[in-house]
Amino acid sequence: MDPVELDAGALRLRPWQEDDADDVVAAMRDPVMQLWNGLPATTRPDALAFLRRRGDWTTGDHASWAVTDAATGALLGSVSLHSIAVAQGNAQIGYWTVPAARGRAVAVRAVDAACRWAFTTVLDRVELCHAVENTASGRVAEKAGFRLEGRLRRSFRYGDGLKHDELIWGRLADDPVPALP
Asked: What distance separates the 2 farthest-apart alpha carbons in the chain?
């Protein structure tokens, strides 16, 4: 699978570039990011390794984008389809936004764009999991057209070192298209 660019109105989802390293380091220093995402990219070398992994789609197990402002090119966040299982037609989705982009529906629109693209490929189902305490991610899931399916008890260790219960949401290719903010 080759990287593709997606147009999402005021957002552009584009392949990651090495030039994004400093912006990724800055984003990963945010306490909210450290708690819920915990990506090991708080140094430039770590960020470059992260970008190389996200930029290489050849294994077919993920599709990852930098979410940018379509007008200015500023990095607003990330969205990735991961754990892609072509035989099952399933994937999981993850995302984050920089502090300045929060509360502006950036994650909702990016997640929706990635799902719409996924549903034009071989995928029929996308799952989204988040810690119960991460209510902002719950709002993103709901607004992006996902349906709450259940609770996974003590399912993932987050940046605080504790295993948290997670909520699992699903969106199917034939679910109603969400009305985006």
From this structure: 42
d(CA 72, CA 69): 5
In 3D space, the residue among 54, 56, 118 whose CA is nearest the CA of residue 86 turns out to be: 118
83 contacts 92 by C-beta, under 8 angstroms:
yes
Q: Are 151 and 116 in contact (CB under 8 A)?
A: no
Euclidean distance between CA atoms 46 and 96, whole angstroms: 17
First and final CA of the chain: distance in angstroms?
31
Q: What is the pLDDT of residues 100-159, one digit of tens each?
A: 999 999 999 999 999 999 999 989 999 999 999 999 999 999 999 999 999 999 999 999
